[in-house]
Design goal:
179 residues, alpha+beta, globular, twelve-stranded antiparallel beta sheet, 19% helix
Amino acid sequence: MSQLILRQTSGETGFGVGVVTDLAGQPVFHIAGDFGRIGDKLILTDQSQHPLAEIEQTAIGILPKFILKANGQEVGSFGLSLQFREILYISHTNWLVFGNTFSHNYNIARMSGILAQARAGEANRIKIEISAEEHTTALVLIVAFLERWQATHAMFGAQFRKITASDDQVLALPTSMHN
């Protein structure tokens, strides 16, 4: 079992970059990219910037869809909703992700057992324990993706609340939506 630490930047410091270290603090992987448009990618690379895994967005909207690739090969796909908090199924791998993006706790499993666990750590870091080391890059990238998804949508929600509450502005709903 290997243990890694994920640290991603926040919106104020250049959202879209992350580093994964071992427990001694030595960099193991880098994560860069974004999502929001078709074709956008989140890419996990080694220290030499060689891509090892990626998640590519294939659809947008309320139910965006993504493809998971490892070593250049598609290994699975999944869809999300804006309210992901409970479970995510990654097709072709038969992996289930149970978790809560607000508490930063995830379990990635298949029928034979737990593949990885991620837990909130100190100083906005996520500790990831990998039990299926042959899938390390994909598992780490899934956790990084979910953390980025939560941060992006938390920022969107805060911006929306700020817009609707500022200057006594109220967003009016069409009359047909009031009933």
